[in-house]
Amino acid sequence: MRKNAIASGTLMAVLLLSVAALSSCRQKPQGNHHDPGALQVDSNLSQLLKPANEQVVSRLSVIKASYGSRIFTEELQGLITYDTRNEHNISSRIAGRIEQLYINFNYQSVRKGQLIMEIYSPELAAAQQELLYLHKGNDTELIRAARHKLQLLGMSGRDIDKVLHIGKPDYRIPVYSNADGYILEKSAVPVAAPAPAAAEAAGSGMDNMGGGSAAPAAQTNAAGPVSSSPLMLRPGQYVAAGQSLFTIYNTSGLVAEFSVRPQLSAYIRKGDRMIFYRTADKAQSKLATVALIQPVFKAGQSFTLLRAYMPAAGFKAGELLTAKVPVSVAASWWLPQAALVAVGNSSVVFKKEGAVFVPKLVKSGLTAEGMVQVREDIGSWELSSNAAYLVDSESFIKMKENLPQ
């Protein structure tokens, strides 16, 4: 009984001491004394608390941008096509019906003066009857006016003399080719070439039924034009006055066309020299001069077209070419491509600040031979040599605006 009482008293004393200790611990500290139980963060670990899309802790090697001018060679791809300055158009000067057509296929080879087709025109027949009637009289002024009218309608002086000689109208008026080359129907759609043709150029006039506009160039191969599809025009069809019917591509001169990136085109000038060769045969190279620099937008892509005029000797339309153009860039800052990462239309580098890397936007320019031009002074920056390695694949890069240097 006594032992139980002693044990109970001892237990009660222990409980009272525990409550007193807890009460003293819960009291607020007085003065400037810090709570020893409060969580304290080491200043060396504060850099680890920021998200990975704002800064990255890494021990990657750092590099600095190099400054200077560069001269490099850019390789361009292109092909040989027809010179649009040598294209000729065949159109009808009168309204009438096609009586006979002597051309069967698109891209058929024709010679200058070759008979293309014959047209019957009631208006032309009436004008011939008028000339024959006036020819029976002696009024030279009226006869001269009637001859001039027939010439305006498309008849040559030789055909008019033939009408006067036989004494009856010629109901079939011939239309001749005005140049040597390959003929293409105006309503036909040319096969798309690897590089878009340049803007249409004006053609020369005709002896008989001439016009002036040119058509887009068609794709060809080394053996000659392709897509020799049958003509849509048929004998018996009617044509309107001034209707363009055919285009003749002259092969006396050819054009080498090369596609260039828009960024690079700013460093190429008209008159610059370049070396080109057949893509299939690199042994024989030729020297050419840039004659035209034309911006082109096609199929949702923008690029620049370089054109060099050349003689037809030794080359055929449709051959693939490779050219090398020297490009000189003024002094600027340069970084390896691995040091930048593309974010949409912007370029990002990782600048070392203390023990961490912070993403920074930079103004990038031309890319050539594994180097990227930077259009701002970053000479004092220490940058990560591999920017892609620091990108978190599950988050976006969060950048702050660069402070002025």
Explain what this protein looks like in three dimensions.
It is a single chain. With 405 residues, this protein is α+β, with helices and mostly antiparallel strands. Among the domains are: 56-72 and 331-390, conserved putative lor/sdh protein from methanococcus maripaludis s2 fold; 84-249, no CATH class. Helices cover 16% and strands 37% of the residues. The chain contains 5 helices and 25 strands. Strands 3, 14, 15, 16, 17, 18, 19, 23 and 24 form a 9-stranded antiparallel β-sheet that branches. It has a 4-stranded antiparallel β-sheet with strand order 1-22-21-20, with no helix packed on it. Strand 20 and strand 21 (346-353) form a beta hairpin. Helix 2 packs antiparallel against helix 3 (140-152). The radius of gyration is 42 Å and the shape is elongated. The N and C termini lie far apart (89 Å). 27% of the residues are buried. Mean pLDDT is 74; it is low at 1-31 and 189-226.
Brief rundown of the structure:
With 405 residues, the protein is of the alpha+beta class. It is 16% helix and 37% strand.
Tags for this model:
9-stranded antiparallel beta sheet, conserved putative lor/sdh protein from methanococcus maripaludis s2 fold, elongated, single chain, alpha+beta, 4-stranded antiparallel beta sheet, 25 strands
Map the helices and strands.
Elements: H1 2-26, E1 56-57, E2 62-63, E3 66-82, E4 87-91, E5 96-101, E6 108-110, E7 115-120, H2 122-135, H3 140-152, H4 157-166, E8 173-176, E9 181-185, E10 220-221, E11 224-225, E12 238-239, E13 244-249, E14 253-260, H5 262-265, E15 273-278, E16 281-289, E17 292-298, E18 301-311, E19 320-336, E20 341-343, E21 346-353, E22 356-362, E23 364-368, E24 371-374, E25 383-384
Antiparallel strand pairs: 1-22, 2-25, 3-14, 3-19, 4-13, 5-7, 5-12, 6-9, 7-8, 9-13, 10-11, 14-18, 15-16, 15-19, 17-18, 19-24, 20-21, 21-22, 23-24
Helix pairs in contact: 2-3
